[in-house]
Amino acid sequence: MRLVLLGAPGSGKGTQATRLKDHLQVPHISTGDLLRAEVAAGSKLGLEAKEIMARGDLVSDAILLGMIEDRLSRGDTGNGFILDGYPRNLAQASALDALLGRIGQPIDCAVQLDVDTELLVERIAGRAKAEGRADDNPESVRKRLSIYNEQTAPVVDFYRQHGMLSVVNGVGTLDDVFTRILEAIAPVREVG
Ligand code: ADP
After folding, report:
1. Residue of 59, 137, 140 best suited for mutating to test ligand 1, as the one with most atoms within 8 Å of CB
2. What is the pLDDT of residue 192?
3. Residues with catalytic annotation?
4. pLDDT digits (tens, 9 = 90+) for 56-101
5. Residue 50 and residue 36: Cα distance in Å, rounded?
């Protein structure tokens, strides 16, 4: 099962992806986590990405594509993968499409977690207190939400046009949302 998980910051993508990974037994590939690991390691890429991430801006498409290519070549994605945080704009969506076409592993399904903006802001504020992420300050959050609306929302349409999109209500308990995601991907799992 090759799955793209789409949703605004605070939509619960990361949490649900972790559960899905255990359930589906495929790796969870979070570009946010990969980038934060580079920042923590103090690598050249990490140093480049640090400020950009703290501001809530997008790291360059070229860097992200390289990271994804590298991650997919590790040999543990034979049964599929869950992409979380990628693609985030149309250029990334087409680059991913081309890359996966080339290696014969196209996306089976894209799931969008749908959550009201007001609730997103509330959730991120709660997370900021609990986790202290550098980019969960109000200015960066505003920037990330507006980038989501301007650049990532078209990616949702991209998958809709390709007939691969399921929209899942992301409001409810973690279990409720998880069950809804499993229901949404069930038809694709049967085919695969
Ligand atoms: P959130 O969904 O809460 O914004 P993520 O962990 O997915 O958090 O991403 C954190 C930051 O990492 C983003 O604001 C951005 O700076 C960078 N990032 C993650 N994925 C991408 C991507 N696909 N393209 C560009 N930048 C990215």
Report:
1. 59
2. 53
3. 13, 88, 127, 133, 144
4. 999 999 999 999 999 999 999 999 999 999 999 999 999 999 999 9
5. 8
Residue range 27-46: average pLDDT?
97
Closest C-alpha residue for ligand 1 atom 1: 9
- Write down how long the chain is: 192
- Residue 148 Cα, ligand 1 centroid: separation in angstroms? 10
Answer for the pair 155, 6: CB distance below 8 angstroms, yes or no.
yes
Starting at the earlier edge strand, list the strands of the sheet with 165-169.
28-30, 81-84, 2-7, 109-114, 165-169
What residues contact residue 125 under an 8 Å CB cut-off, 6+ apart?
136
* pLDDT tens digits for range 121-175: 889 988 888 888 888 888 898 999 999 999 999 999 999 999 999 999 999 999 9
In testing the pocket of ligand 1, which one of 6, 15, 28, 31 has its CB within 8 Å of the most ligand atoms? 31
Amino acid at 163: G
Q: Do residues 68 and 59 touch, judged by C-beta distance below 8 A?
A: no
The CATH number of 2-191, from 3.40.50.300, 3.30.420.10, 3.90.1170.50, 3.40.50.460, is 3.40.50.300
